[in-house]
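Give me structure tokens for this 164-residue protein.
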Amino acid sequence: MGSTAGAPESLVIDLLANHVRLIPTVGEMRWREWGHPPEPEDPVWWLDATRREAGRERLPVSWVALDNRGEALGAVGLAEYDIEERRDRSPWLIGMIVRADLRGRGIGRRLVARLEAWASEHGYRQIWVATGPAAGFYQQCGWEPVETLVRETGETAAVLTRRL
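Here you go.
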């Protein structure tokens, strides 16, 4: 577990599209966290996905948490869909990642809060997330569990929602 100290004082949350030089860093963070079966193992896939998700005004859109040196501490995205099994609802929080050495400092909460604010400002009234071990984190952020789903890949995912 990371330190319980708060998020860095100078933490800034901004659109990843405003910091395109950080797309490779965010893509690599995501690949290191999830780049094993049943997810894609190729780091180029993660880089391409992160690039595609770095929109501005419409889905998909992503945010990055930056320190005072402009380095990426974490990122989160919002997309029309995430999992094939639940294409009947939208939009979905995707790609939530915080550097492992900085977890537990409130960075993830700040990223999620920014995503929720943007979604509300753009007329969305409900958002969704599918996750494995991070379900507790989302519940601490005010998300409500909806179901536990056995995916086509065989893995189990918790589906949670947040009304805005």
